[in-house]
Amino acid sequence: MSNHIYANLIGNWVDLTIEPTATINEKKPYLWWEESATMYAPFDRKQENTMYELPYINIDYKGANYRISPTQIQVVVK
């Protein structure tokens, strides 16, 4: 069995694990998942009611950087 990490990037679900240059928070997708699936999510927020302080994940995919909500990630075991 292997894990496949999918991300919703501007309305298209893509399998990040099959794209050789894709990274999640600067790690290969399978390593990111195996090493605790970190995301930016501050406990102490400097400002209230701002998108800058909401949890997010950085994804580099085919030369573009995406900042997405963790809810836009799916892990599928095949």
The count of strands amounts to: 6
- The averaged pLDDT comes out at 90
Low-confidence stretches: none
Oligomer: single chain
- Fraction of residues in helices? under 10%
The largest sheet, given as strand count, sense and whether it forms a barrel, is: 3 strands, antiparallel
Strands of the widest sheet, in order across it, are: 2-1-6
Which class best fits the helix and strand makeup? mainly beta
Could you say which overall geometry the principal axes of the C-alpha atoms support? globular
Tell me the series of helices and strands, N- to C-terminal.
EEEHEEE
- Count, helices: 1
Terminal Cα separation, in Å? Answer: 5 Å
Percentage of residues in DSSP E strands: 35-45%
Radius of gyration, CA atoms, in whole angstroms = 13 Å
Describe this structure in words.
There is one protein chain. The protein has 78 residues and is mostly beta strands. The chain is built from 1 helix and 6 strands; from the N terminus they run E-E-E-H-E-E-E. Helices cover 8% and strands 36% of the residues. The protein has a 3-stranded antiparallel sheet with strand order 2-1-6. Strands 3-4-5 form a 3-stranded antiparallel sheet, with no helix packed on it. Strand 4 (57-61) and strand 5 (64-68) form a beta hairpin.
